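We emphasize that the prediction below concerns an isolated chain of 117 residues; any contacts that depend on oligomerization or on bound cofactors are therefore not represented. The input was used exactly as deposited, without trimming of termini.
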Amino acid sequence: QVHIVESGGGLVQAGGSLRLSCVASPMIFSDYEISWYRQAPGERRELVATISIDDSTKHAKSVKGRFRISRDNAGNVVALQMNSLKPEDSAVYYCHVESDDPFYGAWGQGTQVTVSS
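Result of the prediction step, given as a token string:
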């Protein structure tokens, strides 16, 4: 199965910024639609942003204008730039390959984002 690794989380004050990164092997992200999800304690996993094969993007209403998903030119890293962070953004953030192929069904360990008020 694909092995996904998320990084870049941490503790930040409200209004601050973080940049999350996602890498995976053995694959090239540019060949797939990739999403960032997040899950807060006691809550369901929530879709945050998606980047398609043609690099078009979609962002959840709750993060639109503050977060931006992107992919590097080589297609090896998918990032989530998070600005103007709010305490309600606190969660574990996961990157996921949007594919019906079970090979890409694995989830990484995620990266914890904590925003203090």
